[in-house]
Design goal:
327 residues; 14 helices
Length: 327
């Protein structure tokens, strides 16, 4: 071990993205109050976080407004109502939204950058949707946005399929390619392989690799650390791990690990106390046994979410038999 204590240093180029509202909204149809969203925003500013993902740019035809809150669609009037006074330079925080291939009216729903408080669009897609994703990235780039490519469910496709996707994404203007462990399935060795592959593919001026981990096997924080050690320079996290099913890498753990003095932990603690913990009275998230099982099976947590809403929600044997029979 080095005598120079490398564990107390930090990498200044590493940036942190908060996706509490976007990912956390998957457990309540994005029906957060404006006050809650604003509280997360103010915490990100005070804590020195680099980016905040405020929701999805998804189609109201697929996600009706009568069922889903404004952060599923991120229309500009809603963004202006909550973030109208936002300034990237003054706050040090960039606002972004996610647009899903196959679920977004991206040709009409995304306005030019100079007409929005958003500065980044993250394009999320499954491997068979890569052609549309490339079109979306080019469109958003032409509109003035920084863009990111988020290949979802990477644990469910072959390495050959990953390589095929990379061949399509690399020539695009996407600034960041994100390792997305949608099912919370990946172990360190798989993170290692993906990180090295993505970094090699994205080598070039200003291009980065990111990590977005889910916590089904309680490895979201560990896998995020591993990707950072290997050179990923953009890390996603949510406050208290708030997110679909088992949730995400907890922001409070990530900021403590990074050691960069620009990041402040106290504002996060205050948000957890005043706004996040009260949500547990009506919302459930975290690495519960059914989510652990879907993680082990490398499948979407929707089955576990449905089971947790049933009368047999704590009958883990029944759920285990169910998913084994469906495998």
């Amino acid at each position: 071990m080095s005598d120079h204590a490398p564990w107390i240093t930090y990498r200044p180029e590493l940036t942190v993205l908060d996706c509490t509202i976007r990912d956390g909204g998957l457990i309540n149809n994005h029906l957060f109050t404006d006050q809650f969203v604003r509280a997360v925003y103010e915490t990100c500013v005070e804590a020195g976080i680099d980016m905040m993902e405020v929701g999805y740019k998804n189609s109201p035809g697929i996600f009706p407004k009568k069922e889903y809150g404004p952060w599923r669609h991120c229309y500009e009037d809603d963004l202006q109502r909550v973030f109208g006074d936002h300034d990237d330079a003054a706050t040090g925080l960039a606002l972004c939204a996610m647009a899903d291939a196959g679920k977004s009216d991206w040709k009409t729903q995304i306005v030019p950058r100079d007409q929005s408080v958003l500065s980044i669009i993250r394009v999320a897609f499954y491997a068979p949707q890569v052609s549309e994703a490339v079109e979306m990235i080019a469109h958003c780039h032409a509109m003035g946005y920084e863009t990111s490519a988020n290949l979802m469910a990477v644990s469910a496709i072959t390495e050959k399929e990953i390589d095929t996707v990379l061949k399509e994404i690399v020539p695009s203007p996407a600034k960041t390619l994100v390792i997305v462990d949608s099912f919370g399935y990946l172990y360190r060795e798989q993170i290692d392989m993906l990180c090295r592959k993505y970094i090699k593919a994205m080598a070039g001026a200003g291009r980065q690799v990111g990590i977005h981990a889910h916590n089904n096997r309680q490895l979201a924080f560990a896998n995020t650390i591993e990707a950072i050690i290997l050179g990923a320079n953009r890390a996603d996290a949510t406050m208290a791990g708030l997110g679909r099913g088992a949730g995400n890498c907890p922001m409070e753990l990530l900021l403590g690990f990074l050691r960069n003095p620009k990041f402040k932990l106290r504002p996060v603690m205050q948000l957890l106390r005043d706004h996040i913990d009260p949500l547990r009275e009506s919302l459930e998230w975290g690495p519960l046994v059914p989510y652990n099982l879907t993680g082990q099976m490398n499948c979407h947590p929707r089955a576990a979410m449905q089971f947790r809403a049933s009368d047999d929600r704590d009958d883990y044997v029944k759920f285990y038999d169910q998913i084994i029979a469906e495998a």
